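Q: Got a minute? One more chain.
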Amino acid sequence: MNQELESLDESEVFKQYMDNMGKEDETEQKGMVKEGVVVSINQTENYAMVSVGGKTEGRLSLEEIKDAQGNLLFGVDSPIRVYVSQRGERPSVSYKRAIVYDKVQAKIAQLGENYKDKVVEGRVVRENKGGYILADKEGAEYFLSKSQSSLRRDSKHLGKHIKACITSIDKEAGSIAVSRKRFFDVHDKQQHEGAKKLMESQAVCRGVVKSITGFGVFVEVDGVEGLVHYSEITHRGSANPAKHFKEGDEVQVKAIAYDEEKKRLSLSIKATVEDPWEEIQSKLKVGYAIKVVVSSIESYGAFVDIGNDIEGFLHISEISWNKDVKHPQDYLELDQEIDVKIIEIDSKNRRLRVSLKQLSDKPFNEFVSKHRVGDLVEGRVVSLTDFGAFLNLGGVDGLLHNKDAFWEPDQKCKDHFKLGDVVQTKIARINREDEKISLEMKFKRPSPVEAFAQQHKVGDVIQGSVVNIKDFGVFVRVDNIDILIKNEDLSPLKKEEITMGQEITSVLVSLDKVTHKARASVRRLEHKKEREQLQAFNAEGDKMTLGDKLIGKF
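A: Always. Here it is, folded:
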């Protein structure tokens, strides 16, 4: 049967299809729509008998007259409009086919006499030996022969949306034949000529959204289809097409490019309105404070509606001086009206950035206006690092460096504190230029040098082991403090011969309680020894008699 149909021309295939449409065997004859009456319903065997005139009755499947919930739409003695066709001696009746028939007749009336090559769009709802049945949005059906379908024989086509040209109509049978091959010929010509006209006129036209994709919107203008790329939707920048449109929407568009070789027409929606960036350049300046409305909130910031189809970007770092902002939605709400400061206008890239926090005084300025170096302050530990801890002092952070927290050089903040701890400190330094605050905590107990000074004084002889060797000298540890012996104070010792842990005896030459540093000298120790020897010698000489001196001469 399939080979026989393919050997016929389109009109013959259509005629043969009309003669056999919907039949289950070769005995069905052309049918018609009649007014019938339901005479009985057999729920067990799932059918109803319908009288279609005289004593003639046909069997109707109950599935055809059930609603979405499975309830019957008709009962016994209910009038019903059905399509009647003859199969041998028993007529076949169909309620759904009558509905389709009426819709097709309405479509035929709508098309009129000049129906040739008019384009229709439908979804493939079923397939038979001769071709495919398409159904449009109104429910009217069309016949597409396989020879005119341009569809691959080995592919699945049910549910596929197809455009085709009307080639013939059988009003009596209530059928419309279409051709997809003809559509391609007509469409390409219409697309080419229509696209050129749109480009030449440069007029703003009304179009209808046909389909929506991630990269743009396909819009049909007077039978010509073009793409509105997502970057051409709004002057705000790239937009998500699905958020702005749905199929069937009417939009104003303007043709902006046409590729004749690829037959691709590019349309623009934003080109139909005045470019708001021209007004932005003339009326707004960096530093201006403006009122805006929050239009969308993301994890990295918020977009604000400036008006006139322009959006500004408020980065999360520009929302608050508080560095602990986790998400913009903790500070902002959709449609909230806020005042912001313009911090960047990039007309070339159509980018405008704003700041919320810059309209309020910096917490650093407020802090330094109330505090001075030496003030005691309390802070909450918000960060721990290898070099120290950051404390929140109420709007600003201060750094407590390890060396400013402990007298012992091997002690670290991260080993003594945990996040959230409240620590009392003293302001050690305020760097206004870099807006940094340094804290210290060593003031709470005497320095090792101060404790050392209670037991020792300058001039005392001390002994300690070498704990560090530097280019400028060596450090020896005495009573838990490191004392520096400079290179010039090592004599008569040779620095290159000194080793770690070596015991060195020296004399204490400096104790600075302000800088908490101490110095010693081996060289001065030698001088001290010489002076002591000389003093001892002189003291012994004073005790000698004249006779003792004369004895030595004889």
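A: The longest strand covers residues 28-42.
Q: Perfect, thanks.
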